[in-house]
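Collaborator request, handled under Task 6.
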Amino acid sequence: MFQQTLKKALLGSVMVAGLMATMGTTPAAAGPLGMSGQTQFHFTNWEDTVDTTTSGNRLSGLIEIDNIKSQITVGNPAGNGVYQFASGGPQIVGYFTDLFTTTPAAPGTFRFTGGEIKLYYKASCNNSGFGSMCFDPTKTIVGGIGNAPIDGGVGAGITDGTLVLDLLFNPPNALGPTDTLDGTFSPICQGEPFGILVTGCGSGSGFLDTSGTTAIWNKFFDTNAQPDPYFGLSFHDMSLQNTFFFRNTCNEVLQPGCSLQNGWTVTSDDPVTGFVKDVPEPMTLSLFGMGLLGMGFMNRRRNQKAAKA
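Structure tokens returned to the collaborator:
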């Protein structure tokens, strides 16, 4: 009699643990850096001008994440700050590459296909030669990253952190255009940071999806929470809005302040929006499985007793 009571007590404990897991008593993992809900990354990019009037020209560049705002809602449109770029760390930096021009739809427009973004996180950095180098977007290869791989001193301190996000530019859907990033530009701009010294500006938009499982934050942003504009036929993980300013040369005498672009001919300002989901902890999944196992065993015992009766 005592053994039967002990068995029931143990099985009951297993069932309770499983039920507690399904009710959320064992919490899911919070998003990285405390992110949750709608989240916006603020990108600053450095790149070079490419000819967008013909197909096949490659565009690449460097990325600095200036800040991240999370828990954005109607009642809290500014969100809560969870990250701010700092000179000695933390730093989230990276690069985008392999965007290729396609034939524009009309004069004053541009279209790209392909494209990938990789972001790296470092909690601290220094330029003493020990540990992770701090990010330096100064261009040190003639022709820039559009004509050379991400190496050889282009943007020091980019890939020596932990890979946190690997994102592919994706078209809205198979029934819409195949371009992954498109927009417009103009030689006459209002509100540009360097006044009349800027030779043009523009804006664009696109969608991003997580790629693979190597980047440790991908699992939190793999949500398909961003609907495309073509009748909602497909969804993506993140959406991108791009505003850029460009010039054809960088001469401090003729264009004071142009070195703020670190030798690149284009800078851009990109808010990238995604939605962070909770990811169950391994212990939660284990308890859930134990609960199901316990309930299954109890049902089996009950059925055996009923059959004997």
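The cover message to the collaborator said: "Residues 18 and 287 are 5 Å apart (CA to CA). Residues 281-309 form one domain. Please let us know whether this matches your experimental observations."
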